[in-house]
Structure formats: C-alpha cells, structure tokens
Amino acid sequence: MRCFIAFDIPVEIKEKVKKIQKDIKGDFAKISFVKELHCTLRFLREIKEKDVDYLKEKLSKLKFKKFYVEIDKFIYFPNDKKIRIIGLNLKSEKLYELKEKIDGLIREKFGKDRRFKAHLTIGRVKYIKDKEELMKRLKVEKDKFLVDKVILYKSELLNEGAKHTKLLEINFL
What we know:
The protein is an alpha+beta fold. The chain has helices at about 10-25, 50-60, 95-110, 130-135, and strands at about 1-10, 30-35, 40-45, 65-80, 85-90, 120-130, 145, 150-160, 160-170. The protein has a single domain (about 1-170), classed as Cyclic Phosphodiesterase, Chain: A (Alpha-Beta Complex), CATH 3.90.1140. It is globular and about 50 Å long. The two termini are about 30 Å apart.
C-alpha cells in the first residue's frame, strides 16, 4: 500500500487555495488541481502491511510542540523556467525540525529521505500556452496557520483522484 506522513491544512487556508485555483483556471494553461490539500513530510511509496505496524509504533513516540507555519510566496518545481508543479512555499524552522525528528524515528527501516522543500502543492501543470498570463494571475497573500498534529495516511489512486485514509494521528503538545 502507498503511504505518506503529512499534516493537514486548516479550512480557512483551503478556501484561500480554492480561490487561487479558480483564479488560475483558464485556457492559457492546463493544470490539474489538488483537491485533498496537505503538506507531505515523507512519502513512503509502496510499503508492506508489517511496515505500517512499524510506522505506527515509531511515530507514536513522536513528541512535538504545536507551531506556526507561514505561507509567503509561490514556488515552482522543478523551477520557474519549466513549471510542472505550482505550490505555496511554507516557512518555519520548526517544520524542518519536525521533518528531521520523523526521519530519525523511521530511518532504520526507511533510510534517509531526499531533500525536503516545505510546500503545499496546489496544481500539476500539463502545459502552459501563455506563461505571462499565468504568472500575472498567481497572487498570494502572506498568511500563517497552526500545525498541531501529523498523520500517517494510506493513499489509493482512483480514477476520480487520490483517496487518503488516516491510519494514525499524532497530536502535538
């Protein structure tokens, strides 16, 4: 089963992202918008059922304090010359500390993770017909929100999009 560790995005931020998605919808670019918004801290790919038990055991030891994350600008992958993913940059030193702590707990079985760039994916770009128009429409207001838990999710790829099921939720102090 496909699994990942993430934190959810509050409703008020989701509403702002939906507005951004609506604003950049048009014939100047073909973008597949993300419906289930979250910030992935670690994508685990296909894992075995026994690995889920290992993850639950290790992640249940996670102790972390609630913290705020700031949204400050758009971010593009792989870069702004060849845009394949449009996201919102997430800023917080605590976010990187959390990522390191999670990696430390599961490193024995899952090894070291690749480079992490904290972001919230809002869409995957199929093609851009008018990049100038797209860039003109990309506007973000700085904002911040509280991160108070992480979740181990199972992800199923369906025709209508990914379906995420919570396997474990760890609340912060």
